[in-house]
Specification:
With 325 residues, this protein is mainly beta. It is 15% helix and 42% strand. It has eight helices and 27 strands. It has helices at 15-18, 57-66, 94-100, 143-146, 224-233, 280-284, 297-300, 321-324, and strands at residues 2-3, 8-9, 31-33, 39-41, 68-73, 76-83, 91-93, 107-112, 115-128, 131-141, 150-152, 160-165, 170-175, 185-193, 196-199, 202-204, 207-208, 210-213, 221-222, 240-245, 251-259, 262-264, 267-268, 272-277, 292-295, 305-309, 314-318. The strands form four sheets. Strands 1, 2, 12, 13, 14, 15, 18, 19, 20, 21, 24, 25, 26 and 27 form a 14-stranded mixed sheet that branches. The radius of gyration is 19 Å and the shape is globular.
């Protein structure tokens, strides 16, 4: 079994995941350099441009950084918040709370991917997607741990529609849509588990997998039950050890390996580097013994966009035109 010296956050990839190799290459990709040396499609928001999924993990990281939402806090801002459909609780940075002068409230449990931490709280009025939410309770963490001034979890999104528009390099938070659908959309009904939309159409080599859209994770993480199943199917796949780092400062040991024949939204993905770990999240959802996976932005960028409509209980995927053809 191989090893990797660095761990990775569920939100940001580091050397451990990058060592797993580049993403499958898209044929005929037209790429231009942006700041920091990463690569993004030329004129990606042009309606005439074909969407070309990222060809390497550095590009995924660049796209991920753009998937934020403008939020007003007590009328000030806007501030760019991470939108995390894998988190039940919203978080504000201690630095922004101090800047605005928000009082510190009671200490409450804060659930992270690696465990539970007691954290201070505060309350503020938030304007998200044009809608005012009064007296929102927010946990407080250092900005360096969040990677942003704040984080929007399911407690602030459950009445909204969240669209990760990878072709347009933007994230939208809007009211729930009506019955209209783009004829090219793959629409999946989804059930709710603690506010989270659970996909009902995902499998590995024909075996159903409980899948969640985790917009706050740059990388995809499966549970140990899924790993055991995959190892039985593909016993010779190389593995590397690493750790998953939580924003709460806790960590969980993990193993990296390529996962083959993962199907999501009607699209069968090529072999994909996935981390496998006993996350606290899987324990909370009672998904220790059944195959389950948190789909991060690395996999979600295979689609032009992914839209989660929480009130309607559905997820829409737009498969790139070259794949549809």
């Amino acid at each position: 079994m191989g090893s990797a010296n660095q761990g990775f956050s569920r939100r940001w990839l580091t050397g451990a995941v990058l060592a797993a190799g580049a993403l499958p290459t898209a044929v005929g990709a037209q790429l231009v350099r942006h700041g920091g040396g990463s690569m993004l499609p030329a004129d990606p928001s042009s309606p005439e441009a074909d969407y070309i999924p990222p060809t390497n993990l550095a590009t995924v990281a660049d796209i991920y950084k753009r998937m934020t939402a403008a939020v007003l806090v007590n009328g000030r801002g806007p501030y760019q918040f991470v939108v995390d459909t894998g988190a039940n609780q919203s978080v504000l940075s201690t630095e922004l709370a101090a800047e605005i002068g928000l009082p510190q409230g009671p200490i409450e449990p804060l659930h992270g991917v690696a465990g539970v931490q007691m954290a201070a709280t505060t309350t503020a009025n938030l304007t998200i997607g044009g809608r005012l939410q009064l007296n929102a309770q927010l946990s407080l963490l250092a900005g360096a741990a969040i990677g942003a001034p704040g984080l929007l979890g399911l407690d602030r999104l459950e009445r909204q529609r969240v669209t990760l528009d990878f072709k347009g390099l933007r994230l939208l938070i809007e009211p729930s849509r009506g019955s209209y659908r783009d004829p090219d959309d793959r629409v999946l009904r989804a059930t709710k588990r603690d506010g989270q939309l659970t996909l009902v159409d995902a499998d590995v080599a024909g075996i159903p997998v409980t899948a969640f859209i985790d917009s706050g994770a740059q990388s995809t993480i499966g549970n140990r039950a899924l790993q055991q199943y995959a190892m039985r199917l593909y016993p010779g796949v190389p593995r590397a050890t690493t750790v998953v780092l939580s924003a709460t400062g806790q960590s969980v040991p993990a193993e990296l390996a390529e996962l083959a024949h993962l199907r999501v939204g009607g699209l069968v993905l090529p072999n994909w580097p996935v981390a496998f770990a006993d996350l606290h999240t899987f324990q909370l959802w009672h998904l220790v013994d059944k195959p389950a996976i948190l789909l991060g932005v690395d996999i979600l960028t295979r689609f032009e966009y992914v839209s989660l409509d929480f009130p309607r209980g559905e997820v829409r995927f737009k498969v790139p035109e070259r794949v549809r053809g």
